[in-house]
């Protein structure tokens, strides 16, 4: 069984990541992954401050998490947070940590999936937690298609509402997500990318009002982890 540490911005989305992996386990005869829970921050506001902090501050916190988990035998890390994956260079960090520890450290992030998505579309809408995240998602989408047209939105009010447990239909109404989707459709978008791991909380209600293809990168992250560990699926 893969021992995998789920790292996200707050306790809520970290637990969402743990729950996601547990649901995925149910597709197999026996569980393939044992998720571990490690949030970076205590709440949304602390997470935003962390993302905008200097490189040394971010590195210290990430080292603190990784070093303790590696001591426990973890080699796979699931970054279940779009904005966090855009605020820290986990690709370079994986290489550095592997060399430092002599272990093969594997890190799975949403941004890795976005680089492949750019090839599939000509116009895509992105809804993210904040504009730093939207910016980093756009950069990664454009890496494989510099002609891609991206319409992006960053809105922490959606994330805070999800953390508060407000019903999805009410969040969509309060935050004007239906209007945002209509705007993206009017701009010719072919798909709506959920650029925050909180947002699958809204998925069933979004499916009712959105005729665009809705993309959640977590499924491909999980598949990539299985492939990296030689597990057939």
Account of the 3D structure:
- The chain has 233 residues and is α/β, with parallel strands linked by helices.
- The protein folds into two domains: 2-110 and 218-228, Rossmann fold; 112-215, Rossmann fold (3-Layer(aba) Sandwich), CATH 3.40.50.1860.
- 52% of the residues lie in helices and 18% in strands.
- It has helices at 11-25, 44-51, 55-71, 82-87, 90-101, 110-117, 131-142, 156-163, 168-174, 177-186, 203-209, 218-228, and strands at residues 2-8, 33-39, 76-79, 106-108, 123-128, 149-154, 191-195, 213-215.
- Strand 7 (191-195), helix 11 (203-209) and strand 8 (213-215) form a beta-alpha-beta unit.
- The longest helix has 17 residues, at 55-71.
- The protein is globular.
- The mean pLDDT is 93.
Helix proportion range: 40-55%
Specify the biggest β-sheet. Answer: 4 strands, parallel
Tell me the span between the first and last alpha carbons: 14 Å
User: What is the correct CATH architecture of the largest domain?
Assistant: 3-Layer(aba) Sandwich
Number of domains: 2
Shape: globular
Radius of gyration: 17 Å
Give unreliable regions as ranges.
Answer: none
Please provide a brief summary of the model:
The chain is 52% helix and 18% strand. By secondary structure, the chain is of the alpha/beta class.
Give the topology, please.
Elements: E1 2-8, H1 11-25, E2 33-39, H2 44-51, H3 55-71, E3 76-79, H4 82-87, H5 90-101, E4 106-108, H6 110-117, E5 123-128, H7 131-142, E6 149-154, H8 156-163, H9 168-174, H10 177-186, E7 191-195, H11 203-209, E8 213-215, H12 218-228
Parallel strand pairs: 1-2, 1-3, 3-4, 5-6, 5-7, 7-8
Helix pairs in contact: 6-7
